[in-house]
Design brief:
The complex is a heterodimer of chains A (130) and B (97).
Chain A: H1 4-32, H2 36-62, H3 67-95
Helix pairs in contact in A: 1-2, 2-3
Chain B: H1 4-30, H2 34-59, H3 63-88
The chains are: A mainly alpha (130), B mainly alpha (97).
């Protein structure tokens, strides 16, 4: 018969190790990738996963009430806010003119086949495009 | 309370994540453009959330979980604010017609 306390401790340790692995991957990507967009790709996804895994370890530790429930709320909050923040920084970087790498283009330049799209209007039309 | 083995794992994780924060500081200082620095600061904020959660695990106090959520809120707000500041030159703007 396996003791439930041992299972809990092993689960917490494993979740903390996995979370630290993902945090390390995100930071390595931030240091090594060549462009601000690629760095954002590296930091937003693995760092969110790592922190969410450490939050899950907190849920295992504190149980399904009180602080454990707060941990689950923290996971949901991270998954909502981190992509939003990365999207805002990407838009800001494109607006101040950080160059893309290779053949990468901004997504609005691909909508030429769609005549109703606001991106294909003529240049004199001064609708704010965002 | 966590066992001695789990406490050792959490201590090693704390040291690792603190070192990762320092490495992100390299990108904040050397980043060629302003969005690079913002991305570095955002990563530091997420790492500090993880540190607060690890401290909650180590000390067995649920208070630090709330601390980590408040840090998440502050990090998100600061990221959005700096992104708007880079784009528009001001934080609270009205669109000029």
């Amino acid at each position: 018969m396996v003791d439930l306390h041992v299972v809990e401790q092993v689960t917490i340790s494993a979740l903390v190790v996995v979370g630290c692995f993902f945090l390390a991957v995100g930071t390595l990507g931030l240091l090594r990738l060549p462009n601000v967009y690629n760095r954002m790709h590296a930091t937003s996804k693995p760092t969110t996963l790592g922190t969410a895994t450490i939050f899950l370890a907190g849920f295992v530790q504190f149980g399904p009430g009180g602080a454990g429930l707060t941990s689950l709320v923290g996971i949901v909050f991270l998954f909502l806010t981190v992509p939003t923040g990365a999207h805002m920084i990407a838009r800001a970087a494109q607006k101040i003119g950080v160059p893309f790498l290779g053949s990468v283009t901004w997504p609005t330049e691909h909508r030429d086949a769609d005549p109703d799209s606001p991106a294909t209007r003529p240049e004199g039309d001064d609708t704010p495009e965002d | 309370m966590v066992d001695a083995t789990t406490a050792t794992v959490i201590d090693a994780a704390l040291i690792l994540v603190a070192a990762l924060c320092l490495l992100c500081g390299y990108r904040v200082i050397r980043g060629p453009t302003v969005p690079d620095r913002v991305v570095g600061l955002d990563t530091i904020a997420t790492n500090v959330i993880a540190i607060a959660m690890l401290v909650a695990l180590k000390t067995d106090r649920g208070l630090f979980v709330t601390v980590s959520i408040v840090l998440a809120i502050i990090g998100f707000l600061s990221t959005v604010t700096v992104a708007k500041y880079i784009t528009e030159g001001d934080i609270i703007t009205r669109r000029q017609r």
